[in-house]
Amino acid sequence: MVRKGFLLLNFLGLSFKKYEKVVSYFEDIDEVFTASEGGLLATGVFTEADIKKISLIKRDGLLEKEIELIAAGGFDCLDVLDKDYPQLLRQIDNPPLVLYVRGDRRILGQEILAIVGSRLATVYGISVAEEFSGRLASLGFVIASGLARGIDTAAHKGALSGGKTIAVLGSGLLRLYPRENERLAENISRSGAIISEFPLNTPPLKENFPRRNRVVSGISKGVLVVEAAVKSGALITARLALEQNREVFAIPGNIDSFLSQGTNKLIKDGACLVESFEDILGELPLEVKKIVSLTLSELGPGEREVLDIIRHRPSAALEEIAQESGLNYSSFGRIVLDLQLKGLIREFRPGFFMSTALGKEVS
Fold first, then answer.
1. Which of 143, 172, 303, 318 could disulfide-pair with 202, CB 3.0 to 4.6 Å?
2. How many structural domains is the chain composed of?
């Protein structure tokens, strides 16, 4: 359980740099809660307004109430020194002092890729986000996004079809936003996680979302922007990713669409242009590609043939694949099932399959 001293600093909204000054003054972070007003002023960190707020927090028992809500909701709460706190996030300039987690905290230590974009997404953008998210999740990547409408929602849904996802909120876990994504959030928390740095009952204030964006990029190895206007939260996330030394990827779009102006500008400025999910995998850790390559090398002749048919089409109907393969029904059905179990293909809608395998050719 997170210590009260960390919760107190988080309630105050103190930056990580101020936290470092506090712990250089006190031997134990919990001394912040017990220190006198004079002792707090002596740190040079706390303003008189901070000290008044601390007095109110103590008087109203807000920390005790927060701890009760954490326990009642079955949430986890990690401080920046916790062993399960994401290592990548700890390395950014201003990491959150506290992370509230609904779901599996261990997922924060896995390979994470962020997929973000416009709330006013087109049908094309939503389709691309779902497809890329599903394929990358099926390879073992955890997909992070912000649970917003549009591309974020599509990224979470796609990831759930193939693997796991993390939703990062700009509000407290008890003030989920947007409300229409409550069912989606429930599904995410069953296999992945919903996280927030904000106290549980924090509303979705406008100023919270840039802070949310730095966490989305901060926990991720890279960020894929699908659709975005020139002035958008998605481009803020991409800029933060660059500052955090993360990979930035962008889907090119129609030059007449304002939702492509942001992604096309990213590409002009040096982001990796993405036409297929292999473009992303080429920049990600070699260990992941090695795992997929080993799976491909273990395929039998019939499996290779069926996989090749699927890999050379954007989407493939089961009947068409069977007809082109020339295999008898029994053998074909067994091969399709085996390829699904190996994670090399997935059924993205009834009767239609797509490849999740690395590379353009099977060798």
1. 172
2. 3
pLDDT more than 90, % of the chain: 59
DSSP character string of 330-342:
HHHHHHHHHHHHT
Domain that holds residue 296: 286-355
**Encoded amino acid at 98, one letter:** V
Calpha distance 127→144 (Å, rounded): 17
User: Both tokens of residue 356?
Assistant: 């999740």
> Structure pTM?
0.80
List pLDDT tens digits, range 141-151.
Answer: 999 999 999 99
The ranges of the chain with pLDDT < 50 are 286, 358-363
Token pair of 99 as six digits: 């992370």
The pLDDT of residue 206: 94
Q: What is the pLDDT of residues 182-214, one digit of tens each?
A: 999 999 999 999 999 999 999 999 999 999 999
In 35-77, which ranges are continuous DSSP H helix?
Answer: 37-42, 48-60, 62-73
Judge contact between 271 and 247, C-beta under 8 A: no
Helix axes 318-325, 301-311, angle to 10 degrees: 130
- Cα dihedral 254, 256, 262, 266, rounded to 10, equals 60
Residue whose entry in the numeric block shows the structure tokens 């992303």: 280
Residues 269 and 194 in one domain: yes
